[in-house]
Amino acid sequence: MSQSESFKDNYLTLQTIAQKLSNNNEIDIDELIPMVDEATKAYQLCKQRIEAVEQALNSRLDNETENAIESE
């Protein structure tokens, strides 16, 4: 399972699993649940990271806007 908090590592995990599922006509049923679990965890970590970056950018933009208004 993906233990990394890195967006890049988790995104690569998602890509790898998607490729495995897309390229195989016959998927080993015993591998399916672990792959879905790993993909779900990687997706959640990517989503959390995107949301954190979005929040940080919005906060900085809000601060810049406030500073610009105060300067006028």
UniProtKB/TrEMBL annotation:
Superkingdom of the source species: Bacteria
InterPro entries assigned to the protein according to its UniProt record, in alphabetical order: Exonuc_VII_S, Exonuc_VII_ssu_sf
GO MF annotations, alphabetized: exodeoxyribonuclease VII activity
TM region(s), chain numbering: none
E.C. numbers: 3.1.11.6
NCBIfam families: xseB, xseB_Acin_var
Protein name: Exodeoxyribonuclease VII small subunit
